[in-house]
Every structure is written in C-alpha cells, then in structure tokens.
Amino acid sequence: MDMQPTMPPPPSSAQPCYRHPDVQTGVRCTRCGRPICPDCMHAAPVGHHCPTCVEEARKEFRQGPGRRIAVANAKAISVTSVILVALAAVYLLEVIQGGAGSLLEGPRTVVLVKMGAAVGLFPLGSDVVGIAIGQTWRLLTAMFLHAGLIHLAFNMYALWIFGNVVEGEFGRPRFALVYFLTGLFASAASYAFMPEVFIPAVGASGAVFGVFGAIVAFNWNRRHTALGAAGLRTAIVILLINSFIAFSSGGAIDWRAHLGGFVAGLVMGFAAEDWTFLTRSGVPAARRLTFALGSLAVFGATVALVVWRTAEIKQLFPEVF
Predict the structure, then answer these.
(1) pLDDT-derived band of residue 258, with 50, 70 and 90 as boundaries?
(2) How far is CA 229 from CA 125, 225, 236, 275, in A?
(3) Does 18 map to a domain?
(4) Strand duo 42-43 + 24-25: pairing
(5) Residues in contact with 8: Cβ distance below 8 Å, sequence separation at least 6, in sequence order
(6) What angle do CA 235, 241, 243 make, to 5 degrees?
(7) What pLDDT is recorded for position 59?
(8) Which end of the chain is more exposed for a tag (fewer CB within 10 A), N or C?
C-alpha cells in the first residue's frame, strides 16, 4: 500500500491571511500585526511586512524624505542644462521635418518658417504668416530654431560657458528671466531693424548675447577686484571678436539680434547688481525692486519695437492687411 506524504497541520495559532481568507498562516506583519501568507510577505529589515504597510511606507517616503530628495535633485538640474537639452531636441525635430539631408545644413527656409522662425511677413502657400499679422509667438520660438548643426553647436557651446557663470552668480530664477527677456528683445530688434521683411531669423544667439551682456555688467561692478578686471578684459576681447565676425559675414549673421540681446543683457545685469542708487544697505528687497524695474524696461522696449515695426509694415504692405 502506497503511503502518501501529508502536510503537517498548521499550528494552533494560525489564522486566515487578511488578504487571502482561504489560506491559513502563522506569520504576522511585523509592522501592523496582520496575518499574512507567503504571497503577501514583503521582506523587511526585521521580519516581513504586509502589502498595506508597504504601500503606506512608500507613501510616507514620497511625502517626506522622497519629496526632499526629489526637490534636491530638481534643484541640482541647472536652467542652462534644461535649455541646452531643449535646443538639441528642437533641432532633432528640424531634421525630422527637413529630412536626413538637413542634418548639417539645417532644413529649408520654408520648414523653419513653419516651425516658428521670426519673420515680418512670409508667403506660405495661399496664406501669409509672420509677426506683422499678429504671430508674436515667433519672437520666442525662433530662439529654439537653428539654421544648421554648426550654428547650433556654437550657440550651445557659448551658452554652456556663459550660462553656467551667470546662473551661478544670479541664481536660477533671475538667470531664466535674463535669458528669455533678452532673447525676446533680440528677436524684436531683429524684426524692427531688419531692412528685408521676408527674411526669417532663427537662433539662440540673441539670448546668448544677452547672457554675455549680463556677464559684462557683473564684472564691471567688480572691476576694482583682480578677478572682476580679468573677467571684464576677457569679455571685451570676446565681444570684439564676435563683432568682427558678425560685421564681416556679409549679412549671414544677424548682428541686430546680437546687439539687441547684448544691450538688454547690460540693462538687466546692472539692474540685478547695481542697486546702490536706491539703498546702500544691500537689502534683498532693493535687489528685487531694481531687477524688476530692469526686467519691465526690457519687456516694455520689446513691445514698443514690435508695435512700431508692425505699424510700419502695415503701411508698406496695406494689401496684406
């Protein structure tokens, strides 16, 4: 006669698992004391935890140490890095839209206009697009578009060098405001003073020159120190080199945007640093006030340039409107 092995009966202290009532178990959660079967056991430093306690512990971690860790990780990511990633991602979209042949030279002008290049007026099929007909968002989108891989590489390299310096000195919020406001003013300056209405402009160089202008202002305020004087000399040399390249490019480089961004950067840089005309105590409230005034001045000038140029274009091309 064959003898079939039998399982020993559960101990007298066994109880149904709180999640599987048909399973008897003698193991309890070391955190809450609920009876748990092997399928519900989660190993813990001491004993086992039930699924409910594990979920509660995860929730507590997310709301406590986890949140602090997430905030710390977010603070560790610089605005400069985020902008660089955005520039690279947008250029990838340009290549996708323009085809594989556009990797080095960038997509065709029509593609750039469709993606948001800054242009006064541009015939696109049966329609006419441009800033002059109300598409002011092009002032912003143009800052993320580039006319070729070399164009992108130069701007990203310059932003990586100068952006990290300004962000480290000004802080992330003020740096972000400097970058985008000076970039918008640079786009507006290009739109306002570009003789040809139908030529689109793209590139982050206007904003990069804005950051560069903020560096010059920062070092000018510290020119009495050895470090500030050295930084100012370096900035002037780089400015002269870039000016020579821009004016000798035969129009390929939009020097209007570069100059506009640089001037706006000077204004915001001095506003962020030179608050002594209001107070000699250097209190944070005075810093915030002067920086806010400088930011409003740049934004107001941006709006004024767009309004002025749009009115002029409407007079030149009344048939479009």
Answers:
(1) very high
(2) 54, 6, 11, 20
(3) yes
(4) unpaired
(5) none
(6) 100
(7) 84
(8) N
Could you tell me whether strands 127-129 and 122-124 are parallel, antiparallel, or unpaired per DSSP bridges?
antiparallel
Same domain, 111 and 171: yes
Residue 148 and residue 31 share a domain: no
Strand (E) positions, 44-108?
48-49
Q: Is 64 a domain residue?
A: no
Give catalytic status of residue 249 as yes or no. no
Domain count, the chain: 2
187 and 53 share one domain = no
CA separation (Å) from 116 to 62, 143, 290? 40, 9, 33
pLDDT at position 320 is 84
The average confidence (pLDDT) of the chain is 85
- Distances in Å between the Cα of 53 and the Cα atoms of 24, 29, 32, 262 are 20, 8, 7, 58
69: β partners? none
Catalytic annotation present for 258: yes
Residue 152's domain spans which residues?
78-320
Assigned domain for 62 exists: no
pLDDT of the residue at 248: 61
- Say what the pTM is: 0.75
Q: Looking at 20, 258, 281, 295, which residue is catalytic?
A: 258
Whether residue 106 is found in the same domain as residue 142: yes
The domain that contains 109 carries what CATH number? 1.20.1540.10
Same domain (yes/no): 120, 232: yes
Q: What angle do CA 281, 282, 283 make, to 5 degrees?
A: 90
Instruction: Indicate whether 268 belongs to any domain.
Output: yes
